[in-house]
Amino acid sequence: MPGPLAGVRVLEFTEIIAGPFAGMLLSDMGADIIKVEPPEGEPWRLFAQFVPTESRTYISLNRGKRSLTLDLSKPGARDIVHRLVPDMDVAIINYRPDVAEKLAIDYETLSAINPRLVYCDNTAFGRRGPQAHRPGYDIIVQGATGVMATEGKSLDGVPVINAIPVADYSTGIMMAWAVCAALFVRERTGRGQKIETTLLGSALAVQNVHFQVVESVDGEWRQRFLDRLAQARAEGPDYDELRKFLIAARPVQAVGNIYYRAFRTKDSYLVVGALSTPLRRQVCAALGVEDKRLDSPDWSPADPAWRQYATELVERVEALIVQRTTDEWLAILDEQGVPAGPFKFTQELIDDPQVVANELQVSVEHPLAGTVKMVGPPLQMSETPLAVQGPSPALGQHTDEILASLGYSGEQIASMREAGAIK
Fold this sequence. Notes:
The relative contact order is 0.14. The mean pLDDT is 93. The protein has 3 domains: 9-205 and 358-419, Rossmann fold; 214-249; 260-346, formyl-coa transferase, domain 3 (2-Layer Sandwich). With 423 residues, it is an alpha/beta fold. A hairpin with a 4-residue loop joins β11 and β12 (269-273). The radius of gyration is 26 Å and the shape is globular. It has helices spanning 18-28, 56-61, 75-84, 99-102, 107-113, 138-145, 147-151, 166-189, 199-205, 208-211, 215-235, 239-249, 277-287, 304-321, 326-336, 353-357, 399-405, 410-419, and strands spanning 9-13, 32-37, 49-51, 54-55, 65-69, 90-93, 118-123, 154-155, 158-159, 193-198, 260-264, 269-273, 340-342, 361-366, 370-375.
């Protein structure tokens, strides 16, 4: 059965994570993706190569695509792009803000060739505002948007990046989501359009509750924090000191958390997530403990006596859970209907029965790397199932095939190769 985007053709000018991830998601839905790369390959190919022009990072983000190598600074290469565009449904780009126009692959140029084109333009900070000119990667946006501060990790007093490039991956999902919506609109109107996504917007979207300010509740403590932060920066403290100001400025935080956290068990760790009062009662029933806070209208984390009670409750529960294995506790918690699971490392999951049962692991045969096991499509559809279209392409693997389909002769292809327009 064809995928939901079978027949959709995508021209991809992307590198690193966000754009390639978006293209891969569209490929899993059945779209035909032509990835345009410079003759040397996009940077992620060259990062920690294990064979020439192949890296684990590139392979993980570019499956199911065809590789077309073009030097877009050469007129002949631009002509190839402009000959491709009339038959394309989508173009995806995530170059620096000034690059697209210089290379004649900007929205105005390509949409003039094909008004039905859906053009997704991703930048770090958007095309307006004082930072619009800046290129940016996930780490820069994590720092600029509070993701790094929210994560709260530091090394010798210096903030460090979140281990998962959350701005990049969430932006890839945003791009794919927006492309699908724009294709739907085009079915109604016959017109393409320009989509603008940003790492900035995605990083803020996934932090919505941290970004949010309810003036009647948050206004006073937020201003208190900002005042103390300005003072701290003037004095030049390290990051850990800045975080102390944030904690001190916030209203009294909840204590005595036994419902939404990880616990040490006899052999590993256990993760529990109970976010409603009925579920919390079930946690207590499973553990055989009583939590007076659940029934007391007087419970207040600001009350020293209650805080002491909550702290002692945590100590009792921790001492209880460490006496049994993770599997033993999961059996008990499952019986009570408590949301819980084991703590695992990613490397354990490639052959995990739950992952395999849900077809979240696939194997592909790469032309240079051989067999590669990787994450499969993250969703499924009953009538138009998603499927991996193949491995990531070798550099320039499909250049001759694509050019021949455009009507270029063997002599013309050889001539362009000699001129450096293609590899």
